[in-house]
Amino acid sequence: MYQQMIFVNLATNDVAASRKFFTELGYSINPQFSTDDCSCVVISDTIIAMLLSKQRYADFTKKEIADSTKTSEVLICLSAESRQKVDELVEKAVAAGGTANDDVQDQGFMYGRSFDDLDGHSWEVVWMDPAAVQG
Fold first, then answer.
1. How far apart are CA 68 and CA 84, in angstroms?
2. In a 3-state reduction of DSSP, which class is residue 93?
């Protein structure tokens, strides 16, 4: 059965530093699709983050590249299997040089936190009680 994938392309100031950051979060790098200008981060079987140097990123768009430390260009949200896994991923991000955002969202059935990576891209991590999803 076909599973649709998502490839999130993000401009980065330093491909090597971003590669190190995401491997410290526990993600792997697909070397087949990685170069000095691009790092292919495997988040899951269906989610890939392509971390592109700004020069390489510019090959794919005619628009100005946002300064993600000043402008929000996208909010990326990842699911987690538990509240503890939400906290663990955000703590790993901070330990690897990211910045935790203070906006903990705890609604009982849903728990989330967020962090900014080295380039200021915002990543949300959310757990939702499976019983609440099923209604």
1. 28
2. helix
Separation CA 93–CA 85 (nearest Å) = 12
DSSP state of 44: S
Which residues does 130 contact at the CB level (< 8 Å), separation at least 6? none
Residue 69 has pLDDT above 80, yes or no: yes
What does the mean pLDDT of the chain come to? 95
Q: How far is C-alpha 1 from the geometric centre of its chain's CA atoms?
A: 26
Beta bridge partners of 30: none
Whole-model pTM: value is: 0.90
Q: How many CA atoms lie within 13 A of 74 on its CB side?
A: 14
Q: In what order do the strands lie in the sheet with 99-106?
A: 75-79, 122-128, 110-116, 99-106
Amino acid identity of residue 118, one-letter, is: L
Which is nearest to 9 in space by CA: 85, 102, 37?
A: 37
CA distance 94 to 117: 9
DSSP letter at 35? B
